[in-house]
Amino acid sequence: MASSSVRIVIVGDVHDCWNFEQDSKALQFLQPDLVLFTGDFGEENLEVVRSVANVEFAKAVILGNHDSWFTKKFSESEKDKVQLQLECLGKEHVAYQRLDLPLIKVSVVGGRPFSCGGTSLFRKKLLSARYGVKDMDESAKRIQKAALGTPENHFLILLAHNGPTGLGSGLNDICGKDWEFKGDGGDHGDPDLACAISLLKENNEVSIPLVVFGHMHKELAHGNGFRKMIVVGADNTIYLNGAIVPRVKSLDDGNKRSLDNESPLSSLEIKGTARAFTLVELSEGRVTKVAESWVAVVEDRTTLIEEYVLFERN
Ligand SMILES: [Zn+2]
């Protein structure tokens, strides 16, 4: 199978905005080789997670803090919703694991699940019971370990719920704190993810061309505008935040018009939605394009109605 060109589609933080039928149509339109989900499906929204598990494309998922919203510790007596979500996802939940996709020569390594960002471990008891991880240092080493052994000719993607520290502390930085009125933000990245990346880079163990995450929403709190969603590191690692929230809009007048250009549908017939995805295109093992893409789904019609190119390399 040809693998020189690969298309990856990121579904950022879902927050209950998921419809199997409509999202499947949008994905059919986008034709991804791999779909990455950054988590926060809802507040332990098992129905959404079950539906995502049924998506008929290769995929990898990391659960976020909202996916362990009520479950603080591992329960042996009954299956809690964290357990049920993990059972649905199976090996496609990549926390501290590597998923190798030999057909497209891509490997995905998952970071720490349930992350809420910042310096303390969120859901410490769960992490300890399920993964044996008790502190940031252990967490970093688990991520590093999962990345070791990545096949040499594979393109490695780190998938985490929240991005690493070190990418800026302004409120509109890719992992910057935007919700506090006082001060100018602060770096809310995950220190363990940053540590794992630097350990892997220091020892030249594997190269990390792409780090994908969510959690820090594109739209900033208090009407402060929008967040930077991409950072290209000095060593060319691309850090990409996919958390476009909410990811679904009903088609308003503006969108109707752009759809009308190509469509004979009358405005009465247009009752569809626009759905956000982040697209990454790889060619010969390098990222050639990254774009925020909005796909309109109106009954059986799908159209790309907006595309914002975030990165392009010829
Ligand atoms: Zn989150």
TrEMBL record:
Residue span(s) of domain Calcineurin-like phosphoesterase: 7-218
A Pfam match: Metallophos
Entry coiled-coil feature ranges: none
GO MF entry, a single one: hydrolase activity
Signal peptide: none
NCBIfam families, sorted: TIGR04168 family protein
Entry-linked PANTHER family: CALCINEURIN-LIKE METALLO-PHOSPHOESTERASE SUPERFAMILY PROTEIN
Protein name (database record): Calcineurin-like phosphoesterase domain-containing protein
Organism from which the protein derives: Pisum sativum
